[in-house]
Write a structure and sequence with these properties.
MetI-like fold; 2 domains; transmembrane helix; mainly alpha; MetI-like_sf; transport; about 280 residues
Length: about 280
C-alpha cells in the first residue's frame, strides 16, 4: 500500500511545474479579476472601493453592449459552421490515394501557419483591389458596416479550415474500412455511407472541433483588432473588444472585468452544453 502511494506521489510531482505555471498565468489572475469586477477601480489608482453588483446592473442596462454581443454571436456561429463544414468536406475528398495529395493538404493547411497580421494584410488587398473588379462593387467588405463581419469571418474561415481538415482527416483514419465495404455489398450509396457511417463515427472529432471553434469565436478579439480596429465606426466590435476598451482606453477596469466575467460565464455555459450534447451522440464501434 505504501509503495502504491509513493508511486502515485512520484507521478504527481511531474505535474507540479505545470500546475504552478497554470496557477500563475490563469488561476491567480482570474481570481484577482473576479475581485476587481465588484469594484470601481479605474485600472491606475492604488485604492478602490467595492460597489457590489453595480457594475453588473450597469452592464445589463447598457444598450451599447448589444452590437458587440450581436457581432460576437454572428462571428462565432458563421465561422464554427463553415470551418467545420469545409474542413470535413476537404478531409473526405482528400481521403484517397493519388499523386500530390500530400502537397495539396499542405497547401490547404498553409494559411494556418501564416501570422494573423499577414493574413489581414493579404485580405485587405483582396477586398479593396480584387473584389471590386470581380463583383463590380464599390469598396471592400471591410469598409461597410453591413458586410464587415462577413469579411472578418471569411478571413477566419480561410485561415483555420486547414486545421479542421487535419482533425477530421485523422478521425477518418480510425474508421474501419471494412464497414464501407460491407455497406457497399448491401447496396448503400456513397451518400448513405457518409450519413450512416462517416458522420456517426466521426462524432468524437465533432465533439472536439465544434466547441473549439465556438469558444474561439465567442472570445474573438484579434481578427477585429488587426483587420479593422473595430471599425468602421464600431461595426466590428466584439465582446472581447468591448471588455478591452473599458479596461484600458476608458479606464473603467471594474466595469470591464465584470463584462469579462459575464463573457466567461456565457462561453462556459454554451461550450459545456454543446459538448455534452455532442458527447451523448458518440457511438462505439
Amino acid at each position: 500500500m505504501k509503495r502504491k502511494y509513493r508511486d502515485e506521489f512520484v507521478k504527481f510531482t511531474f505535474l507540479i511545474p505545470a500546475l504552478l505555471f497554470f496557477s500563475l498565468v490563469v488561476l491567480i489572475p482570474f481570481f484577482r479579476g473576479l475581485n476587481i469586477a465588484f469594484t470601481n477601480w479605474d485600472g491606475i489608482a492604488d485604492h478602490y472601493k467595492y460597489v457590489g453588483f453595480h457594475n453588473l446592473v450597469q452592464l445589463f442596462k447598457d444598450n451599447d453592449v448589444l452590437p458587440p454581443l450581436k457581432n460576437t454571436l454572428f462571428f462565432a456561429l458563421v465561422t464554427t459552421f463553415f470551418v467545420n463544414v469545409f474542413g470535413l468536406l476537404l478531409a473526405v475528398l482528400l481521403d484517397v490515394k493519388f499523386k500530390g495529395v500530400n502537397v495539396l493538404k499542405t497547401v490547404i493547411f498553409m494559411p494556418m501557419v501564416i501570422s494573423l497580421v499577414l493574413a489581414a494584410i493579404i485580405w485587405q488587398y483582396v477586398y479593396s483591389d480584387i473584389f471590386p473588379i470581380l463583383f463590380h462593387t464599390n469598396g471592400g467588405l471591410l469598409g461597410s458596416p453591413s458586410t464587415v463581419m462577413w469579411g472578418l469571418a471569411i478571413i477566419c474561415i480561410w485561415k483555420e479550415t486547414g486545421l479542421a481538415m487535419v482533425i477530421y482527416f485523422a478521425g477518418l483514419q480510425t474508421i474501419p474500412k471494412d464497414m464501407y465495404e460491407s455497406a457497399r455489398i448491401d447496396g448503400a450509396s456513397s451518400t448513405q455511407q457518409f450519413f450512416k457511417i462517416t458522420i456517426p463515427l466521426l462524432m468524437p472529432a465533432f465533439t472536439y472541433c465544434i466547441p473549439l471553434w465556438l469558444g474561439t469565436g465567442l472570445r474573438q478579439f484579434d481578427y477585429s483588432v488587426v483587420a479593422t480596429k473595430g471599425g468602421p465606426g464600431r461595426a466590428s466590435e466584439t465582446m472581447a473588444m468591448y471588455v478591452y476598451n473599458y479596461e484600458f482606453p476608458y479606464f473603467k477596469a471594474g466595469y470591464g472585468q465584470m463584462a469579462a466575467l459575464v463573457l466567461f460565464v456565457m462561453i462556459l455555459i454554451i461550450t459545456v452544453i454543446v459538448t455534452q450534447f455532442l458527447r451523448r451522440r458518440e457511438v462505439e464501434y
